[in-house]
Amino acid sequence: MFSKHSQAYRGLLRELKKSSLPPHKINSALSSSFRRLAEEAKHSDVILDDLRNAAVFMAAQREYKVLLDRYNPLVDLTAEERIHATARRVGLDMPITHEPENNK
User: What's the pTM?
Assistant: First the structure.
């Protein structure tokens, strides 16, 4: 049976794996920092609570990103692309804007 400190640390590692880019590649600096905090948590319940809160926060941020992408697909588009996508959504098509050629 794992101690509550080990469980908190392993929960943090799981969340780091899920939220890392590329997937399942944990940053070694973060991992070692969390390991050090887990070791310090053996002497303080406040640090243990902070580790648990960090894991909950990372899970919530990951879920927020999924929901943001699902319900607001225009969030990562440029202003011009957002205007075209919005017009298409309501059944319109934006006219092609004329771009004058540079005559030298």
Answer: 0.66
